[in-house]
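Q: Here's a chain of 483 amino acids. Please give me its 3D structure as C-alpha cells.
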Amino acid sequence: MIDKSILEIHEALKNGVITSEKLVGESLNKSREIQEKYNAFVTIVDDAKGIDVTDSLVSGIPFGVKDNFSTKDILTTGSSNTLNNYVPIFNATAVEKLLNAGAVITNKTVLDEFGLGGTGTTGHTGVVKNPWDRIRMCAGSSSGSACAVAAGVYPFALGSDTGDSVRKPAAYCGIVGYKPTYGMISRFGLFPFASSLDHVGVLTRNVEDAAIVTDIMKGKDPHDMTSWDSSNIHLKEALTGNVKDKKLFYIKELCDINNYNNPSKELVDHLENFHKTLELCKELGIEISEESVDQKILDAIDSVYLIIACAEATSNLSNLTSIIYGPRSDKKNINEMMIDYRTKGFSPLIKRRLVIGSYVLQKENQERYFKNAQKLRRLIVDIMKEFFKTYDGLILPVGIGPAKHLDGSLDKVSSDTVALDEHLQIGNFGGFPSITIPNGFINNLPVGINITGNCFEDENVLNLAYVLESKMPYKNQIAKEVN
C-alpha cells in the first residue's frame, strides 16, 4: 500500500483497509531494505508510530525529510561530519506543517553535503545509488529523497532546490520534482546554502501528490521574511485538465541536435524523445513555439550560478565553527579550533566551493566576478520574463540523458552540453515555479522534461504538467532495477 498515491492511501486508511500503524511499519521495513541497497538515509526513525487518521489527506501517511531540514529531537546533519551529532530543538516550518496535518516522519534522507553538490556522492554517510541502476547516480543534492520515493518507501519526501536539486534527481529517478515560486514555502529551519536561490521542494510519483503536499506547506511565515501570502492559490483545485489556448516555448539552441559536436547516442535519443513529447503537447491543444537565446548567455548560466551560490554559501556556512554546533575541537584557542574543525569536517568539494566564494567576494575581485554574475543573472531573468509575457511556460528536456554513471567513465560530457545540462538553474535565478515529470526511457532508464513558468503562476505550471502526465504511462511508477 505504501507505494500508492496519497489519495489512494488516504481512502484505504479512512475505509479501514489499512491502519496508519501498519503503513508506518511498512515504510520502516522498506527503508531498511532500501538502505542496504542504495544508502538513501542518514537516519531511520525506528520508533516512528502511526496516528489516528483525520480528514487531512496526508494524515497517517509516512514521508521522508531531507537531512538539511531541522527536525525536533531527530538527528539533523546536513550530511556533514561538522554536524554529525546535532539534534535540533525545533522543526522547520515546512516539516511542522506536515506533522500538524498528521504526516509521519520515517527517515531523514542523504544529500550532498549541505546541498553543495549535484551528484549524491558527497554526503558523510556515503554515496547514494540510483534505484534503477546501482552503478548510476541519483543526482543531487536531494538524492536520498528522490531514491526513496522512486523505490516506493512513501509517496512523498521533502527536498531543497538551489540549482536543480529537486528537479534533476526526480528526472534521474523517474518521478516528479516540484519547486514552487520562491518564498511560497517558508525556508525557516532549512539549512541555508545560497539564500537568494534556495527553495523548499517536494518529490512525489505524480503531479497531484505534489500539489497536495505543497498546499499544506505553503503560506506566509513570520520567521521567514521572504515568504508571502499564497492563500489565494489552491494547487490541487487548479488541476482542471483544461489547457485550451495554453502556449509553451522551448529554446532552439538547447534542443537542436545539430548544435552538439559528435553527440552521444543517449543525447540523440533524449532530444528525439523530447520532440516526441512536444508533438504530444500539440495533440493536447497546447501551442508550441521555438525561441532563440544568445548562446553566449546560455553558456554563462552555470558560471553565474557557481559564483553566486558559492559566495552566498561562504557567508551562510560561516557559523560552522565548532563553538556553537557540531563536535568541539580540542585545540587551545578559538582560531585553531575553527581551522581544525572546518579542515577535518568539510569534504573536499565544500572546501573548494568556499574557497571560490571567498575569492569572488574579495574587494579586488567583486566587480569582475560577483557583480558581473549578478548582472548576468538579472539579464537572464529579464529575458525569461519577456518570454513569459507571451507564453505560459518554458518546456525543456532535463539534463543530457538518463542518470550518469557514478564513476563517470562511460559518460560522454563535453563543453557544448553544459548549458543543456544546467539550464534548470534559470528557475532559481528568477524564483520561477518549475516542475520535472518523467517522459520516457533511454536504455531502460528514465528521463524527464521540465516546465517552468512565471512567478506566482504555480497553478498554471502544475496543471500543464498534470495534463501532460495524464497522457503518458509513467505516472506512479516504481523503480525497477535494470542491472
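Q: Can you summarize the key feature?
A: Residues 363-387 form the longest helix (25 residues).
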